[in-house]
Amino acid sequence: MPTTLTESSAGVGPSWDLLADLTDLFHYPFMQHAFLAGTLVAVVAGALGYFMVLRRQSFAGHTLANVGFAGAAGAALIGQPPVVGLLVFGLAAALGIGWLSERQGAGSGSGQWRQDIAVGTVLAFSLGLGLLFERLTSSYAGGIYAILFGAALGVSDRDITVIAITTGVALVALVSIGRPLLFASLDPLVADARGVPARLLSYVFLVLLAFAVAQAVQVVGVLLIFSLLVTPGATAQQLTTRPGRAIALSILLALFFTWVGLTIAYYTPYPVGFFITSCAFVTYILVRLTRLSVNALGRNSHSGGTEDATAQEMIMVERAAQ
Amino acid sequence: MNSPSMDLDAASAPSALDAAESMTVPRAPRSGPEVFTLEQASVRVGGHLIWQDVSLSVHAGEFMAVLGPNGAGKSTLLKALLGLLPLSSGRISVLGAPVRRGNRAIGYLPQRRAFDADVRVRGRDIVRLGLDGARWGIPFPMLSLIWHGERGRAEERRLQEVIELVGAAAYADRPIGELSGGEQQRLLIAQALAPQPQILLLDEPFDSLDLRNQQAVSALIQRISQEQGITVLLVAHDVNPILPYLDRVLYLARGRAVLGTPAEVITSDRLSRLYGANIEVLHASDGRVVVVGQPEEVSYHANHAH
User: Fold this and answer.
1) A188: nearest CA in chain B?
2) A310, A312, A319: best mutation site toward chain B, by most B Cβ within 10 Å?
3) Using CA atoms, how far apart are residues A106 and A93, in angstroms rounded to an integer?
4) CA B251, CA A7: separation in Å to the nearest integer?
5) Is residue B129 helix, strand or coil?
6) Interface contacts A/B by beta carbons within 8 Å
7) Interface of B with A in 54-83 (CB under 8 A)
8) A108-117, A158-167, B21-30, B224-233 — which is least confidently predicted?
9) Contacts of A243 in chain B (CB under 8 A)
10) For A80-156, where are the alpha helices, taking DSSP H only?
């Protein structure tokens, strides 16, 4: 299935009559599928993306996506749908990365470095494997293109079913572990001492991330996945410092990027992936610029020396209390 | 800015929690009930003996420092008390029961670096995790208020109370990454205090703080210990900021432990026997105590006697 639109709709602009446009937009089953799949993917990717950014596991997410390339190519080799390969390879890679991460010391810089090297080695190997699989399946060039850049408009009924199941599993899991996962992400040592199964949670999180990646690859592809996994979470953290609100906002942003991307793509002959990533990019840049200017203004009104004042005041208060 | 001691009364008045009552309780006598006990406890990490046959008991309300050179097993002792590290032999009990991980009666402040500057989560939400972070569910406080009703409101009150207790009300709503080391440390102490623990285990809480903040934070810990009757076990590299407040000192070296008042333990004789080397404790004219001759030099200051 091509990533650009069919002849019938390409080049026809919106009428700016909302009801008519919406009817038009959802007239074709492929657009219904695209919106349904895109919505489910955006909800999971937005929620998990917040935690991924917080946990600084973007590289792990990137690796899981690229492992998906090998998975999809491998699935094609044995005549299975790509999503099967995405899930199997993603799960194996998630457990592998979890195992490698465990060898890292308690947040020490050198340990972090070693984890990156190990994950990077896995990443390179999986890409090599994907290359081999792709060469072995001679008729797969179009499929590879869809895996790398997404095929939102080619989502099948079976894909929708798989996406709906993984979305359900991921959301139920996240609703159950969200708070301890936040604790373990921000403060692993204290969370561990307070009885949070931090080790188990890091595995569970990587498995959920593999689910999210396997889904999102079908909409935005391996190479564009960060527009749904990283940008919404990172943008939300710029806009609010309350974790609950940031998760909700991250989901809303992912939905916004997906819907806007799909809608614009419907009226133009250009690929969906481009519009989703552009929308994410522009939003992130706007938010960063706004925050930078707000900070610059704020810095002028608050002069330095707060720290000294606080410490001095604390000493006086403590002396008075004794 | 608000002064924590004044806010305390206002905040505690409508509280249903018992922290308010316990604030006026005087310091428990040293012969109070045993908070934790070690009986001939030994710990090995990766086959390497850290310390052995350590027997001691700490009483309710005591303020105790754990001192010793690097690698003597100071942090290991805290981890053993938290149930994070099994003993190779002997017994530990906390509040009359065997140690278990996740005990809400113990507040813990691990040795750490500061939060990175780009961590954009409010200080208040970091403190809140001390109350509800170990509970399953999603981190939406609003939902918790609607769902749990009175418990949710009691937690909100406790959160505000504990933030005011450490004097962090003025900056608790700012992202933790943007705060100074001293401000972060106060919020983390609030997080440890939030579930109203009876014991506070602090691992090098003055690390990476400047002298002024060391004094402020040590005075804060001492005040909390005294007002709330909390037993404090504090691992320190430099006993300087806390020496005036200490009830007892546990000195770990060469796999063994010596326990007693600072005046009893930090002497040439006791430390020489502990280290098995010639150690000299010098008393400077301004009240400072300096230990010389140990593998790494640590100085002790006692110039702020109260």
Assistant:
1) B110
2) A310
3) 22
4) 82
5) helix
6) 150
7) 82
8) B21-30
9) 121, 125, 139
10) 82-102, 109-136, 141-149
**Among B129, B175, B223, whose Cβ lies nearest the Cβ of A321?**
B223
How far apart CA A17 and CA A280 sit, in angstroms, is 26
Find the helix packing angle between A82-102 and A198-224, rounded to 10°: 130
CA separation for the pair B75, A263 (Å, rounded): 57
B248-to-A111, A252, A261, A313, B61 alpha-carbon distances in Å: 37, 55, 66, 29, 11
Q: Which residue has the tokens 């796999």?
A: B255
Q: How far apart are CA B121 and CA A125, in angstroms?
A: 36
**Cβ contacts of B134 on chain A, cutoff 8 Å:** 180, 183, 191, 194-196
The H or E element spanning position B249 is strand B248-253
Tell me the C-alpha distance between A218 and A213, whole Å: 9
Task: Report ipTM (2 d.p.).
Answer: 0.83
How buried is A92 (Cβ within 10 angstroms: 0-12 exposed, 13-18 middle, 19+ buried)? middle
Q: What is the dihedral of CA B146, B148, B154, B156, to 10 degrees?
A: -50
Q: Domain limits of chain A?
A: 5-321
Tokens of B107: 């507040």
H helices of chain B, where? 4-12, 19-22, 74-81, 123-132, 141-148, 150-165, 181-193, 211-228, 262-265, 268-275
Each residue of B87-117: pLDDT tens digit? 999 999 999 899 999 999 999 999 877 898 8
Question: What does the block give as tokens for A115?
Answer: 């984890």
Q: Do B133 and A179 touch (CB under 8 A)?
A: yes
Reported confidence tier of residue A15, pLDDT bands at 50, 70, 90: confident
- Distance (Å, whole) CA A171 – CA B270: 60
> At a CB cut-off of 8 Å and minimum separation 6, what does A68 contact?
A85, A86, A89, A90, A147, A213, A214, A217, A222
Q: Specify whether domain A5-321 bears CATH 1.10.3860.10.
A: no
Q: Please give the single-letter amino acid code of residue A42.
A: A
